[in-house]
């Protein structure tokens, strides 16, 4: 089974490249459209999956939860074997402060103050992990005194800081993770894999996740209360100035003059997450979270072909807001570029980097499928080919230079992260289906990009998008020619 194990950077298996299998029905455009159409029909309750999720359930979960953007909770059976659940907790279910201090106490961690608000968020500062644990234990001994601050360790890049400690394995249904796959390819040593630790009463204000990504959160110990509002309800939870409410339980919401649309709210969903359980948070579901006990959790944000359209729309909407804010400067030279700079500063990504995101995801899958086609062609010919690029299917400039890499195993630093499944063996039909789904999802975004005025005005972006569309189409034709889909 695929294990989420961070190794040395150059040896990382990108998050979604141990490809699980999708049923061919998932590739049906009508099926995809129907599943996505159900995004707006949100359940009034969150289903609990009471069993362990094996890899052969991947396709079912993909269709029913990821494509439909519906939340659920996975049983603690899915985390029972994790090292963190054994090491980080005592037999009574409480945090194992002694182990945590001895093993990780020297780390520097980000800590938020839950009793303070600054710019609609909880202000953070860096502390030594040992100092945070000292505070936590003293806070418990004070019986969580109202006179003391409530500190919450948030967004700790634990796997990055301790790459040799295998705290957990990403459940198979969450491994198609384009976001961390892309960030692993960058040089800034960043990711969207986090550890959270906080005392009873610590909490996270009302929000939706970065880039409108999916997220999953596993309780290593402790219990949490989650308050959810389905996509669209957030419009009714903004004040007359358009600002989202900070605390969903605030008395201010009853002020009709300040929150004129609050009376239109239809769906509030509350759920308790027990120790060991994993909660899946879909794209655009705003939520607020309270720790009911001393709690440790492991969280990921991630994107894939099921919700990349939501992410792209979110980025476009934010650019519109930026353009509105600086509309009086529209005649200035380089206005489009300035808007992109502000977009990157406020959202965390701009159009050029999002295109690079799509290129990296595509390159990895093109390499996977191209290697498979080479192996299949060798099998048809009865013996291995000489190492040259005289291949009997059409290739374009986008990946012709990668053929020698695929045949010799020699690669650049960027290509070294793209590893083939099963040590270079041919892909299964289900793995091919997944790569095709991913590439089709990228292609849909690219088509929308080149119809976007602001995107086409950026230097060479339209040409890059068109080249990638041609590459994907060429590869799809090659797959069809070799009957890999049948």
What does this structure look like?
With 486 residues, the protein is α+β, with helices and mostly antiparallel strands. Helices cover 35% and strands 15% of the residues. It has helices spanning 29-37, 58-67, 83-87, 97-104, 129-141, 158-161, 178-184, 308-325, 335-347, 351-381, 403-408, 429-449, 453-456, 461-481, and strands spanning 47-49, 72-74, 108-113, 124-128, 151-156, 193-198, 203-207, 214-221, 224-229, 269-273, 278-281, 286-291, 295-302. Strand 1 (47-49), helix 2 and strand 2 (72-74) form a beta-alpha-beta unit. Helix 8 crosses helix 9, helix 10 runs parallel beside helix 14 (461-481) and helix 12 packs antiparallel against helix 14 (461-481). The protein is globular, with a radius of gyration of 24 Å. The two termini are 26 Å apart. Residues 1-16 and 384-423 have low confidence and may be disordered.
Question: How would you summarize the topology of this molecule?
Answer:
Elements: H1 29-37, E1 47-49, H2 58-67, E2 72-74, H3 83-87, H4 97-104, E3 108-113, E4 124-128, H5 129-141, E5 151-156, H6 158-161, H7 178-184, E6 193-198, E7 203-207, E8 214-221, E9 224-229, E10 269-273, E11 278-281, E12 286-291, E13 295-302, H8 308-325, H9 335-347, H10 351-381, H11 403-408, H12 429-449, H13 453-456, H14 461-481
Parallel strand pairs: 1-2
Antiparallel strand pairs: 2-11, 3-4, 3-5, 5-6, 6-13, 7-12, 8-11, 8-13, 9-10, 9-12
């Amino acid at each position: 089974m695929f294990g989420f194990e961070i190794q040395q950077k150059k040896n990382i298996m990108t998050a979604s490249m141990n490809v699980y299998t999708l049923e061919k029905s998932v590739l049906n455009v009508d099926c995809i459209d129907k599943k996505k159409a159900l995004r707006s029909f949100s359940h009034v309750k969150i289903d609990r999956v009471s069993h362990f999720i094996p890899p052969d359930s991947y396709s079912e979960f993909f269709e029913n939860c990821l494509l439909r953007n519906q939340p659920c909770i996975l049983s603690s059976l899915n985390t029972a074997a994790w090292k963190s659940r054994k090491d980080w907790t005592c037999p009574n279910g409480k945090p194992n402060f002694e182990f945590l201090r001895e093993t990780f106490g020297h780390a520097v961690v980000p800590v938020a103050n839950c009793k303070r608000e600054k710019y609609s968020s909880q202000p953070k500062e860096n502390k030594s992990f040992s100092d945070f644990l000292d505070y936590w234990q003293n806070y418990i001994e004070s019986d969580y005194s109202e006179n003391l601050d409530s500190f919450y360790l948030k967004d700790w890049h634990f796997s990055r800081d301790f790459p040799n400690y295998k705290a957990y394995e990403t459940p198979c249904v969450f491994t198609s993770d384009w976001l961390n796959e892309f960030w692993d390819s960058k040089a800034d040593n960043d990711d969207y894999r986090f550890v959270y630790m906080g005392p009873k009463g610590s909490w996270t204000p009302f929000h939706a996740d970065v880039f409108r990504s999916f997220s999953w959160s596993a309780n290593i110990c402790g219990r949490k209360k989650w308050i959810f509002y389905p996509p669209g309800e957030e419009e009714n939870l903004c004040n007359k100035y358009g600002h989202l409410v900070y605390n969903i339980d605030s008395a201010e919401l009853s002020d009709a003059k300040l929150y004129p649309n609050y009376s239109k709210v239809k769906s509030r969903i509350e759920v308790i997450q027990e120790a060991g359980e994993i909660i899946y948070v879909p794209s655009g579901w705003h939520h607020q979270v309270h720790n009911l006990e001393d709690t440790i959790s492991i969280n990921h944000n991630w994107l894939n072909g099921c919700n990349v359209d939501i992410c792209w729309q979110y980025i476009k909407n934010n650019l519109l807001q930026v353009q509105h804010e600086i509309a009086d400067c529209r005649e200035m030279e380089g206005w489009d570029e300035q808007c992109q700079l502000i977009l990157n500063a406020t959202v965390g990504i701009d159009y050029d980097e999002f295109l690079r995101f799509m290129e990296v995801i595509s390159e990895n899958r093109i390499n996977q499928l191209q290697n498979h086609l080479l192996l299949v062609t060798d099998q048809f010919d009865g013996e291995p080919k000489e190492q040259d690029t005289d291949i009997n299917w059409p290739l374009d400039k986008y990946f012709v230079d990668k053929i020698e890499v695929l045949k010799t195993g020699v690669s650049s630093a960027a290509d070294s992260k793209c590893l083939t499944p099963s040590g270079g063996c041919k892909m299964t039909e289900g793995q091919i289906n997944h790569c095709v789904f991913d590439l089709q999802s990228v292609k849909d975004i690219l088509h929308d990009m080149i119809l976007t005025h602001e995107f086409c005005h950026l230097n060479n972006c339209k040409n890059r998008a068109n080249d990638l569309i041609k590459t994907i189409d060429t590869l799809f034709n090659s797959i069809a020619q070799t009957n890999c889909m049948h």
